[in-house]
Amino acid sequence: MLDFSTIENIPHKAGVYVFKKGNEHIYIGKAKDLKKRLSSHFKAKEGKSKVIVNEADSIEVILLDNEKEALILEANMIFEYKPKYNAMLKDTQVYPYIRVSNDEIPCVEMVRSRKGDGKFYGPFTNVQFTRQLLEVLRKVYKFRTCHRDMSRVTKPCMDFHLGLCTGICAREESVEDYRKRIDELSRVLKGDFAHVIDFVKFKMEQHAKLLDFENAAKYRDILLNFNKVMETQGVVLPERVNLDVVVGKHKTFLVFKIRSGYLLSKLVYEYDGDLDEFIELFYVRNQMDVPDKIIIEKKTRSVSELSKILSIRIDQPTDELEEQLLKKAIDNLNYEIGLIISNRNVLKQMKELLGLSKLPNRIEGIDISHLYGKNTVASLVVFENGEVKKEEYRRYKLGDILDDFESIRMVVKKRYIKHNLPDLLFIDGGIGQVNAAHEALVEIGKECDVIGLAKEEEIIVTRHGEIKLAYEHPVLRLLVRIRDETHRVANEFTRALSTKRSLRSILDEIKWIGPKKKKLLLERYTSVEQILSVSRDEIERLIGKKATESLLSELSYLRNF
């Protein structure tokens, strides 16, 4: 336990302070005046400050020049150390980012977390939109997406031959020119989508003036595809504004991100703090994408001070358009809160009806699939608070096992020898499958609630009996969702393995397709249908004219057979 003498020599300066217990960071804070702020912790007679002071055995301070530096360092340290007494931003789902690496020749890719080096742009609302956006931008800026060691490359990869990048890896262009394009891309990823629209229009008109109609048409198609992708977000404003709308209540916060007049993202977070604390954490974490203005429902003194520190205008709506955006954000926030409450109620009902030992906040579901006894696989899906967490899905290859029960035992052991147990383990099947999962857990010295769902009757199976609920019961509907999702993922994995194996065996029999060309094709395409759906020119650039002719002739024959 610490006493007041611990902070006697701490100066009246800005900085960050850390309460530690051994090597563990238990609380991280910032202050304009460290001595004054730490004194308030020691003077507290109750509450969190009293608990922190009693538990900590040391304090570290980092002196900084101003409050803004302290704010940024505090947020970064909280994100890194995740102290138990700091309120954390909790995503209601994992949002994707676009990462530009710090390499001399930067790589650009979509990622699901802010781990590693580089500049992170986002977060974006969903994976599909982010992928489509990157696909269109790549046609304009020709950036690399590979992870090749640039110091060892002497020949460009297939992307160069397909016109997807400039062959920077083999120095087909200068590093300086490549980095200039990455700077242009970064400008767009910060929200200046008007820049890419104007650039593509300029290139289209330039080629048209030179009567180069083929390239003019390519840029026209890029522009059409870009607009199509952006319009999937649902809101396109008449003005090219860059602003965010932030609203929150009941520990739930919603952010609308609008860039160049497009609603780029709708982000929902759970956070046990005030609006100004949420804004502080969110915008320090996402410094690469700061709007011109943040619209909030009600301005306070603390928000005004935060506005000065962050150098962002934070204000209430000043015109009809901003009023409409705020109303839309509030409507969406109320919907999200209703959804969260509804899911929590369903999970409470599930615990009571099924006699579970704990609230099933985290449910993991397993299904087994195979093709005539071959390519046996297992899917593992994750639901948290009643919603899917696709980024945590796993797929397992189990060989050619015919026994369903043995397959379940195998995947349960594989998963839970190394990973923490969920609150509830769901198995697609009846009492036999449920018992197999339970036996596997016992063998590895672990235990949790295990249930199943019989395929046809939709009867819930536990180790203690069966429960039949009405078709429309919310608990049954959630379990059916989990069952259907495990089934979908397992079947898709089985088909993917079967298709890849089938394509591999077909390529073995085609003249002019040797090991190298076969490898190129398998890296690029996953099925016969995919090869037949692309242009002949694309395949010729990959494997040559003679091999392409032989390949397409054989595949067309097989499809028509």
From TrEMBL:
Chief place of localization: cytoplasm
All copies of domain UVR, residue ranges: 194-229
Location in the cell: Cytoplasm
GO molecular function, one term: excinuclease ABC activity
Listed GO biological process terms: nucleotide-excision repair; SOS response
Domain UvrC family homology region profile residues, every copy: 278-441
Subunit and interaction comment: Interacts with UvrB in an incision complex.
Protein name: UvrABC system protein C
UniProt source species: Fervidobacterium nodosum
